[in-house]
Amino acid sequence: MKKIFPQTFYNPLSLVGAVVFFFNIGLIIFLAVVEMLSKHSRPYADIIIFMVLPLIVSFGLVLIVVGIIRERRRLRAGGVTESRFPILDFNDTKHRTLVIVFICGFVLVSLLYAFAGFKTYEYTESDTFCGILCHSSGQSLHRAENQAYSFSPHAKVGCSTCHVGSGIEYFVLYKVRGMRQLFNLITGRVPRPIPTPVADLRPAQAVCESCHGPKYQFYERLEARQYFLSESNTPWKLDLLLKMGTAGLKTDRPPKMHWHSSTTEEIMYDASDPKRVVIPWVHVKRLDGKIRTYRTTGTESAAPEPKDDAKRRMDCVDCHNRAGHPFHHPSDILNALMSTGLVDPSLPDIKKTAVKALEGEYRTFDEGKEAIRKTITDFYRTTYPSVAKAQMQAIDRAITSLQGSYGRNYDPLMKVSWKNFPSNRGHRHALGCFRCHDGKHVSEDGAVLSKDCNLCHVLLEHQVSGKKDVKSAVIRVLTYPHPVEIGDSYLAMNCSDCHGAAAE
Questions:
Q1: Is 363:414 a contact under the CB 8 Å cutoff?
Q2: Rounded to a whole number, what is the largest CA-CA distance in the chain?
């Protein structure tokens, strides 16, 4: 019988290598077909299909080559050259049973191998994969990232959907960066806190806008907010009417989310600052064809045009930079907890005391949680002993809620908090909007990027009057945007000067 391959191929080691080779080639084809038929992109599954399985295929090839080399040496040393296939007699019950068992076992192993490969493929796409390996509970790297993500508006969006997206370019980029991070972890070179990789972020047009591309475009959006003044826990309710841009159902261009995209073709800015906080140069191209360049002092000598590699096109994440992993300011945490009743607003000075407890310097999570409990308990026992006895359950409930919020917004191991990872959405606790809209960016024709409060939003207040049975409600526009009297200082100062990290 004529053999397909050379005589040296027919040895046990090479035959095992061939089985490994063809098994995994078949699994690659199977998973690649599944990937192509999938409705959603699965970037991390490419690790299995194009990296792990090819390594196993290569291992099979190595076994084949090593087996051939060994067989060739054996034959040169005078080994027997004749090889015979085993004789199978299907009339023999033992032979027949052996063949059936072998075929059934081969089919079973093949199915189990394919099933295991597919489940591994699915697991790499799960948020559990990211959460357990790098961002799990305990004293792991960026545990708070996973906790914050779990309570964010994007909690049901897969990690790789935003962090990688589809396509090979960013898949390779993030894998290379991941290997560098793994090396830093093994060698103990991980910085604390880990800088946000703003330079490597994928353009939002390829990620965010795959979901946030609404058919309807609205002119305004109303947000209801409630604040509690620190000393008295007095609630202060405010409605914020955000000006989103030009209203309309259809436009001659794809509709966008708000003014920055609905009225402009492109906004470029100087991204020389690694943290993208200092922005001296902004170039705006509007849909009507008008082009303006804004500089911090209005002069080209003070803010020259940056080099091409320092320019960046503005997109969603330049402002919505913590959309998936928000770390909230302690006063915002208390406003939310008190509004929902998780922290009883009737507890005197609870906001002031809780903010102090959350902002303490701790070495571990356990130390932080215990310090929060001790700070709140000691405060009421010494300052308000009658409250400590009468409202013991409310105090315990507040402590439990604060400890949970601490775990979602702080990471003492990695030095994670709202201070090191500020949100640019808004301008209260970080410069945010005022990085450009500071009243100092001026174009050549005298146009100014204003910081006027009413430019982007209108502050509204509800006034309810009348008796219990006959009440009337009036909505009025607030001309003074602060709950307490601070004079005209808000016109010159930034909100973050008092409410940001610089004021701490």
A1: no
A2: 113
Residue with tokens 């796409």: 125
454-474 residue pLDDT tens: 888 888 876 666 666 666 667
Angle between helix axes 392-409 and 350-358 (nearest 10 degrees) is 40
- At 134-171, the pLDDT tens digits run 666 544 566 778 888 888 888 888 777 887 777 666 76
- What one-character-per-residue DSSP string does 446-467 give? S-B----HHHHEEEEEEEEEE-
How many other CB atoms are found less than 10 A from the CB of residue 444? 12
Phi, psi of 259 (to 5 degrees): -55, -45
Q: How far apart are the first and last CA of the chain?
A: 87
Q: Where are the alpha helices (DSSP H) in 348-391?
A: 350-358, 365-383, 385-390
Which of 336-340's residues contact partners 24+ apart within 8 Å by CB, and which partners?
Answer: 337/398, 337/401, 337/402, 337/405, 338/228, 338/233, 339/226, 339/228
Classify 236 as helix, strand or coil. Answer: strand
Residues 6+ apart with CB under 8 A from 155: 149
Interval 18-48: pLDDT, tens: 888 888 888 788 777 776 766 555 555 666 6
Q: For the beta carbon of residue 412, count every other beta carbon within 10 angstroms.
A: 20
pLDDT at 452: 84
